[in-house]
Input
Amino acid sequence: MKHLNLTLIFVLFMVFILPKTVIAQDSNLGNWLIYIGNKKLNTNWNIHSEIQYRNYDVIGDLEQLLLRTGLGYNLTENNNNILLGYGYILSKNYISDTNDKESVEEHRIFQQFVTKQRIGKFGLSHRYRLEQRFVEDNFKMRFRYFLGIKIPLQDKEDQKNPLYLSVYNEIFLNTEASIFDRNRSYGGLGYKFSKALRLELGYMNQFFESSGRDQINIIAFVNF
Output
């Protein structure tokens, strides 16, 4: 009951209090709506699908639309997966000192390796990703490392309220002269409805070389 009360306070803060504070302060807080799907073809093969609708504000001011898919293969049954994927990214960038935007299209090929492990009740996930990025007429390459930690808020025996905390950090490194690209830090609250569906509400800070942005993330994970 103690965990549930704290959880309700957290959700109310994220949904009602924080957005009003952000609007009042006219800050750079945005909102990302994210769908992540996984289709298990058999014991070894899976298809990954992903849609991200990223806004400059709470909703309606499109910053970026990201569509990503890939074919994965399990090296072991549950803990080690390699994947070859493709992504399409449409960015709407504001032109300096104006309210006008310009559209930038990117096609991306990526390879990744995901490995998972448990330490006590904590679930750890490591993701290593290499990207080949075709941004308009430019070609870029980038490496990403993701470390995520999932922390259950109930004992395993309690399946009525499968709440958990989710935190991660991901660093992006370019292969060009300016090595550091960005870093993302995230913390959120998740609810597992079933093996097929879980939802998360979280807060993410994205730090660039000389600037930063904050986002509220609403994420749906679907297995089918």
About this structure: The chain has one domain: 2-217. Residues 1-27 have pLDDT under 50 and may be disordered. The two ends are 32 Å apart (CA to CA).
